[in-house]
Write a structure and sequence with these properties.
Layout: H1 2-11, H2 28-37, H3 41-54, H4 59-71, H5 75-88, H6 93-105, H7 109-120, H8 127-142, H9 146-159, H10 164-176, H11 180-189, H12 197-210, H13 214-227, H14 232-243, H15 248-261, H16 266-276, H17 282-295, H18 300-312, H19 316-329, H20 334-346, H21 350-360, H22 368-380, H23 384-398, H24 403-416
Helix pairs in contact: 2-3, 2-4, 3-4, 4-5, 5-6, 6-7, 7-8, 8-9, 8-10, 9-10, 10-11, 10-12, 11-12, 12-13, 12-14, 13-14, 14-15, 14-16, 15-16, 16-17, 17-18, 18-19, 18-20, 19-20, 20-21, 20-22, 21-22, 22-23, 23-24
Length: about 425
């Protein structure tokens, strides 16, 4: 809002009422704008209302009143004042600019887009104001059409001086257009900019997180979260980085705080469940998954996660239905097929183990765990040749990570291979 105020103070003489034709001189509205600049909004309101009592069609006074209403979070009243200015003189670009900014804050982005565009086409608009409007259009278009947003930014640079904000926007555009290398360079350029460092930390940290560079992302996201401790998205990203750098306890603490602050945030709830599930708290994760499934009962990934929380509690019979639902909804969900094979093995249904593993290997390569399931299922079904083969594959891939099973299998192979 301080940027808007600066613009107001520069262009206020162009917002004079119909009867104000005298040469520039001290105006009662100068005192209004001084009070606004000092955040003395009650005083400013009293002064501007006095000015409007003398001239109800004073566009400068109406504009100031709109600014006061917006600054005191009376957005409906602010909109009324800005629209009143436009009704009196639709050629005033500043009024369209102020209205557009307000519309963005109330999520009426299509209306805001039209108002910003009017500013860019207005012959009365100074180059700097047109540049601000083009930048605002670029930020709006970024979410829907990055290629259009890039053109918007180029128009902004044609009529106004490049700013660090443009570098930040260039990074976001590069990301959206599939050029992470350019995006990273843009963000790194801003890491020492005292005005944009926090935003650069957040943007670069988020980019590195998506690239699974968790160690690099962690420090940046920690700094960004320190600057914006109530940002739920940042908290979720930092928790993801913590969970993937061997710090699940810290991730859970952060997520629990965010979840307590906003239990209705489904993204935070799901991430909390996904971190709790493999880190010794599957019972807590189960409850969260149940709540999430009430909102999205046909989410296959969610059903799979719910099933694994039950497996971790050794509730194999209960785990099977949600896992079966998951693969029915998404037949290529390989993780769910693997979980079903594990459940079938625990229930000694070895033919089902083979069937489930056959489905899994269509979508994912084998690993030590699946080799073990293949081997034990074949062994129980007395398919000795296949069992021996898979036992060897297990030993080749286990790498000492499963010492108990490796010990047992070597003894079992000694028996099978000497029959």
């Amino acid at each position: 809002m301080r940027l808007i105020l600066a613009t107001v103070l520069v262009i206020c003489n162009s917002l004079s009422g119909p009867a104000q034709t005298a040469p520039p001189q001290a105006s009662p509205l100068d005192a209004v704008e001084t009070a606004i600049e000092q955040h003395e909004f009650a005083k400013a309101r009293a002064l501007v209302m006095q000015a409007l009592s003398d001239n109800p069609q004073n566009t400068r006074a109406l504009y100031d009143l709109g600014f006061i209403e917006f600054s005191t979070d009376h957005r409906q009243q602010a909109e009324q004042e800005y629209r009143h200015v436009i009704e009196l003189d639709a050629t005033l670009p500043q009024a369209h600019m102020a209205l557009a900014r307000l519309l963005v804050t109330t999520n009426r982005k299509d209306e805001a887009h039209r108002e910003f565009l009017l500013v860019t086409q207005n012959p009365k608009a100074e180059s700097q104001l047109k540049g601000e409007a083009w930048r605002a259009l670029a930020n709006l278009d970024l979410a829907t059409d990055p290629s259009v947003a890039r053109v918007d930014l180029l128009h902004a640079l044609e009529v106004s001086t490049e700013t660090p904000q443009d570098t930040l926007l260039t990074g976001k555009l590069a990301e959206a257009l599939g050029d992470p290398g350019t995006a990273e360079k843009a963000y790194r350029k801003l890491l020492n900019d005292r005005h944009l460092e926090a935003e650069a930390d957040e943007a670069l940290g988020s980019l590195l997180l998506r690239q699974q560079h968790y160690d690099q992302a962690l420090t940046l996201l920690q700094d960004a979260t320190t600057a914006n401790p109530d940002d739920a998205v940042l908290s979720a990203e930092l928790a993801t980085a913590l969970a993937n750098t061997g710090k699940p306890d810290k991730a859970l603490t952060l997520l629990e705080k965010a979840h307590a602050a906003d239990p209705a945030d489904l993204t935070i709830t799901r991430l909390l469940a996904d971190v709790a599930n493999p880190n010794g708290r599957p019972d807590e994760a189960e409850g969260l998954y149940v709540e999430l499934l009430k909102q999205n009962p046909k989410d296959p990934e969610l059903l799979n996660s719910y099933g694994t929380s039950l497996i971790r509690q050794q509730r194999y019979f209960e785990a099977e239905p949600p896992l079966q639902q998951a693969v029915a909804l998404k037949p290529d969900l390989a993780e769910a097929w693997g979980s079903l094979a594990f459940v079938a093995s625990k229930q000694e249904r070895y033919q089902d183990v083979l069937t489930d593993l056959t489905q899994r290997k269509k979508y994912l390569p084998e690993n030590a765990s699946t080799y073990f399931l293949w081997a034990t299922a074949y062994d129980k079904l007395r398919h000795t040749k296949e069992a021996v083969s898979y036992y060897h594959l297990f030993l080749e891939s286990s790498g000492g990570k499963f010492p108990d099973q490796e010990f047992q299998i070597r003894h079992r192979l000694a028996v099978l291979e000497h029959k």
